[in-house]
């Protein structure tokens, strides 16, 4: 039966590069933000390429959840689900999430917001996923792994080996590098968000990022910082 590994990230993190690592395995299928079309249709938010995203995706959350959780006896060994935690709006049921093998991928909110505002005109606390990630930790319990992107980038192989063990598959060196360029599995939003990943061939070494925040951005960081600190305190340290 196919293992379903769900990674819940926020925007402007290493979630797409991590998807590349799993996609480079011969035994794995990746799914890129399966709730995005539903999220845009449901919230009415105006994201880049909104109409294309809705047209290309599934806007019935029930069908999305069924595709992510139903038995798949003839499927690949593993399905890697790249999720954006901010897609978990309050009226989306959560009961199906515990059936997946989940991991939370966090990043310092100041870095997230600074990067986010280079692509978007405005940001709100619910846009960057950290509050939803804390909700997931409460929902799933303290055993759900939390990985900070800064830690991961300092030792990608170490964390990928741990994740493979957690998922129940063997690590392969193929996860450490990949060909540059787009993939058929990339969401139609890739031209708006994936510039750096499309040029990449491996995980870039960690480096501190320059943070520039507007007053609006500082307010979002202030609201989300306590949730991040709580998650950061529970993170996996290898």
Write the SSE topology:
Layout lengths: L2 E7 L5 H9 L4 E5 L3 H8 L6 H7 L4 H9 L8 E7 L16 E6 L2 H8 L13 H11 L5 E3 H6 L1 H12 L22 H4 L1 H5 L15 H19 L5
Parallel strand pairs: 1-3, 1-4, 2-3, 4-5
Descriptive notes:
- The protein has helices at 15-23, 36-43, 50-56, 61-69, 109-116, 130-140, 149-154, 156-167, 190-193, 195-199, 215-233, and strands at residues 3-9, 28-32, 78-84, 101-106, 146-148.
- Helices cover 41% and strands 12% of the residues.
- The mean pLDDT is 96.
- With 238 residues, the chain is of the alpha/beta class.
- The radius of gyration is 17 Å and the shape is globular.
- The protein has one domain (3-233): Rossmann fold (3-Layer(aba) Sandwich), CATH 3.40.50.
- It is built from eleven helices and five strands.
- α2 crosses α3 (50-56) and α5 runs antiparallel to α11.
- Strands 2-3-1-4-5 form a five-stranded parallel beta sheet, with helices on both faces.
